[in-house]
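Re: [ENG-882] Designed sequences occasionally contain unexpected residues at chain ends

Forwarding the minimal case from QA. Structure tokens:
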């Protein structure tokens, strides 16, 4: 990713957060998400080898390229469109709890030394993503096996 931005207005004041190369992360919390799973997911993302090395292979992590993270809350990731024409958002977590988990997620990136910018939880935001390759991944806190 080349760059990302998020902008919003709060009480008549315009805000904007931007990053250069790194990840734009649209993050939602389900009702059953736990802090330890959120931290584990953040670590997984930080260590993903999806940036090109000198041979052009996806072999470098966010840490390797000294990239940044832009973390944007997005509860509509849990929209259920299986019936009708209006999305059901019942699978999204309680807003207060979801905000806590969102903060835990962003904090984990900072703890790992990643420059991290955020939007404003629950705000109506405009998100900009300038992508330099066709890499879009969907990750979840749902259980995944650990290989040793």
């Amino acid at each position: 990713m080349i760059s990302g931005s998020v902008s919003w207005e709060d009480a008549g004041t315009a805000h904007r957060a931007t990053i250069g190369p790194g990840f734009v992360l649209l993050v939602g919390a389900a009702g059953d998400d736990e802090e330890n799973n959120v931290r584990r997911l953040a670590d997984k993302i930080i260590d993903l080898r999806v940036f090109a090395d000198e041979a052009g292979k996806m072999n470098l992590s966010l840490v390797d390229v000294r990239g940044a993270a832009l973390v944007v809350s997005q509860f509509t990731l849990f929209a259920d469109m299986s019936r009708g024409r209006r999305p059901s958002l019942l699978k999204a977590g309680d807003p207060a709890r979801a905000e806590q988990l969102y903060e835990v997620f962003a904090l984990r990136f900072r703890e790992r030394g990643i420059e991290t910018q955020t939007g404003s939880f629950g705000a109506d935001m405009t998100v900009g993503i300038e992508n330099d390759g066709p890499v879009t991944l969907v990750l979840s806190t749902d259980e995944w096996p650990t290989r040793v």
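QA comment: On inspection the terminal residues look reasonable. The helical segments are 35-47, 95-111. Proposing we downgrade this to a documentation issue.
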